């Protein structure tokens, strides 16, 4: 039976014991002694503040706990994560959207999403992406080059189905609650293991996984349409001169 890779890693409680205990002269001026936070003009470069076991984030947790690929079945080619975190002025930061090829269609512009693509299949293990707490498994959609799925029940054992996609617990991080630990997206991508498909399992074949936190993404037909457009963009068609492309477009602005 295949299993998702997992290794328990014990980690000490994170803390910043120096928070609010500084004595720093601003610009060397003894009349302006800063003691609060990091004592660095309120920029607070420390990720957390507080004692062990009671530490809290200085920034939006969405800036700190981010989706990222832990393993890829082939060579990692692209990775994008739009966290929809909030800046110091409490404005939502929305940087990316999915716009495959020349279709004129735009997807997930205002949704938290992650897209990872890889080339070839060089491992028997699955692709794995860490999903932070902002992804509710029951309201998460996944689109790969082989399948689509919406709504997941968290499980840690494979069902051994072709091209299986599952969301599992995450033993790599520690947190006081299970919800605060996030999850793992596991994509088994078995196409090359099926009889007759070996010709498609070469080192130049591109694959991808798009995962979106969206309670309104249950429309199967729409997910299939997105998959078809992503396949055309990400995989390309070299035999007709169409090379693989990254469907992510930058839409955010630094200033209005």
Question: TL;DR of this structure?
Answer:
This protein is mainly β and 256 residues long.
Q: What's the arrangement of secondary structure elements?
A:
Layout: E1 24-25, E2 33-34, E3 48-49, E4 56-57, H1 61-64, E5 68-71, E6 75-82, E7 96-98, E8 112-119, E9 127-131, E10 140-144, E11 148-150, E12 165-169, E13 183-187, E14 206-213, H2 220-235, E15 248-250
Antiparallel strand pairs: 1-2, 3-4, 5-9, 6-8, 7-15, 8-14, 9-13, 10-11, 10-14, 12-13
Keywords:
single chain; 256 residues; mainly beta; 2 domains; five-stranded antiparallel β-sheet; 15 strands; 25% strand
What does this structure look like?
The longest helix has 16 residues, at 220-235. A hairpin with a 7-residue loop joins strand 1 and strand 2 (33-34). It contains 2 helices and 15 strands. Mean pLDDT is 82; it is low at 5-12 and 193-199. By secondary structure, the protein is mainly beta. It has helices at 61-64, 220-235; strands spanning 24-25, 33-34, 48-49, 56-57, 68-71, 75-82, 96-98, 112-119, 127-131, 140-144, 148-150, 165-169, 183-187, 206-213, 248-250. The strands form 5 sheets. It has a 5-stranded antiparallel β-sheet. It has a 4-stranded antiparallel β-sheet with strand order 5-9-13-12, with no helix packed on it. The chain has 2 domains: 13-58, no CATH class; 61-250, no CATH class. 8% of the residues lie in helices and 25% in strands.
């Amino acid at each position: 039976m295949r299993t998702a890779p997992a290794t328990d890693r014990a980690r000490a409680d994170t803390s910043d014991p120096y928070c609010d205990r500084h004595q720093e002269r601003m610009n060397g001026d003894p009349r302006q002694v800063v003691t609060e936070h990091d004592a660095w003009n309120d920029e607070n470069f420390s990720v957390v503040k507080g004692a062990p076991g009671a530490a809290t984030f200085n920034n939006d947790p969405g800036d700190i706990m981010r989706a990222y690929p832990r393993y890829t079945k082939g060579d990692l080619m692209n990775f994008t994560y739009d966290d929809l975190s909030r800046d110091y002025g409490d404005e939502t930061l929305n940087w990316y959207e999915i716009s495959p090829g020349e279709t004129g269609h735009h997807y997930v512009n205002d949704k938290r999403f992650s897209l990872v693509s890889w080339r070839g299949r060089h491992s028997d293990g699955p692709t794995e992406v860490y999903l932070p707490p902002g992804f509710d498994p029951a309201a998460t959609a996944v689109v790969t080059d082989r399948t689509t799925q919406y709504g997941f029940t968290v499980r840690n054992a494979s069902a051994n189905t072709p091209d299986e996609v599952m969301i599992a617990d995450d033993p790599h991080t520690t947190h006081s609650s299970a919800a605060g630990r996030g999850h793992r997206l596991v994509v088994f991508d078995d196409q090359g293991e099926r009889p007759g498909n070996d010709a498609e399992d070469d080192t130049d074949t591109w694959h991808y996984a798009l995962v979106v936190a969206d309670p309104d993404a249950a429309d199967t037909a729409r997910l299939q349409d997105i998959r078809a457009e992503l396949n055309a963009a990400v995989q390309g068609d070299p035999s007709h001169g169409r090379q693989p492309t990254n469907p992510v477009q930058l839409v955010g602005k630094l200033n209005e």
